[in-house]
From TrEMBL:
This is AraC family transcriptional regulator. SMART domains: HTH_ARAC. InterPro entries: AraC-type_N, Homeodomain-like_sf, HTH_AraC, Tscrpt_reg_AraC-type_HTH. Keywords: DNA-binding, Transcription, Transcription regulation. It comes from Flagellimonas aequoris.
Length: 329
């Protein structure tokens, strides 16, 4: 990776200041602290150098402690997409799509072995800063999954390719499981059943749809067609960052059969396929008008695996490319 999110860079600085350093300690940074708010990314050299500097100043476990302070909002558009996952493990599927689409890299990979799932972080740690960044990433995974599930799920094993640090206090506090060093890969492992848990948001949504169905069946109160279609559009929107959702996926979330979902949409005068396209177009136009996300990020959030495919689809919808549409506003 040539660049890292400026949000992660700022997070490191804030954590360092919280641990006793001051802004004066960072006067020699190539990018002044007061200039960071105007940036979206920093170079890999700056990012990794800061990791190395802070490890020297605050101890080898600092990167792991930074990971424990991460919140979903720190990850920008990718973090936004995590908010709408239906299962805990889906965040890795979305992360894989995101990095492939925006940087053509395959960072995250899930390897399932029965009751255990290994989340592999494919990185070549060519310098100490990258080792530290990887420790921060795996540490952050723990708190992000707990935030998504609102449950105290914990890893069962963590593996690092680099050598074991002398002081493992921060590592043990963060991971609370066996930690292995000088392994063949970077990975964090969870029970498969934990990664298959519904996210807290998905649980709330499903309960809402179940209550609506109970009212339909017990009180004879049928959900109005326009509200039903809107409900389906919301679920499609939430699912798109993982890719185009199948009708089975949406009907499962609504606790009904594919046939029932198809029939209810038909009664409202729409097909599932057309509703997916309409939702994609609506999201894309709205985001292009806001002008806060890049076109690649919009392609990711609307379910496309390649920006070129998104560009072609948008041109078909509007007779304009995404860039032309944005400039015309």
């Amino acid at each position: 990776m040539k660049y890292f999110s400026v949000n992660l860079y700022i997070k490191m600085l804030n954590c360092a200041i919280a641990e006793g350093m001051s802004e004066k300690d960072f006067m020699d940074l190539s990018t002044p602290i007061n200039a960071l708010d105007d940036l979206q990314v920093v170079s890999a050299e700056e990012f990794l150098s800061l990791h190395e500097l802070l490890a020297d100043k605050l101890g080898r476990g600092f990167a792991v402690r930074v990971g424990q302070k991460m919140i979903i909002e720190d990850y920008g558009v990718l973090g936004l997409s995590w908010r709408t996952c239906s299962r805990i493990g889906e965040i890795f599927e979305r992360s894989k799509r995101y990095f492939k689409l925006l940087s053509n890299t395959f960072l995250w990979q899930i390897q399932k072995e029965g009751a255990v799932s290994h989340i592999i972080l494919n990185r070549e740690t060519y310098r100490r800063g990258m080792e530290l960044s990887t420790e921060a990433s795996l540490s952050a995974t723990v708190v992000v999954l707990q935030a998504m599930s609102e449950k105290e799920i914990s890893p069962i094993q963590v593996s690092f390719k680099h050598k074991k640090p002398k002081d493992l206090t921060s590592h043990k506090n963060a991971f609370k499981c066996p930690i292995f060093f000088e392994q063949s890969r970077y990975s964090i492992s969870y029970k498969t059943e934990d990664l298959n848990l519904r996210t807290a948001k998905a649980d709330a949504s499903i309960n809402n749809y179940l209550l609506q169905q109970v009212e339909e069946k017990t009180k004879g109160i049928k959900i109005p067609e326009n509200k039903f279609v809107h409900n389906v559009e919301v679920l499609i929107t939430d699912a798109l960052p993982t890719g185009i959702p199948s009708i089975h996926h949406i009907s499962d979330l609504m606790a009904m059969s594919n046939r029932t979902l198809t029939r209810r949409l038909s009664e409202a005068g729409v097909t599932y396929r057309d509703l997916v396209k309409k939702t994609q177009e609506s999201i894309a136009k709205e985001m292009l008008r806001k002008n806060t996300e890049s076109i690649g990020e919009i392609a990711f959030l609307t379910g496309f695996s390649e920006q070129s495919a998104f560009n072609r689809a948008f041109k078909k919808w509007t007779d304009l490319t995404p860039s032309e549409f944005r400039k015309s506003i």
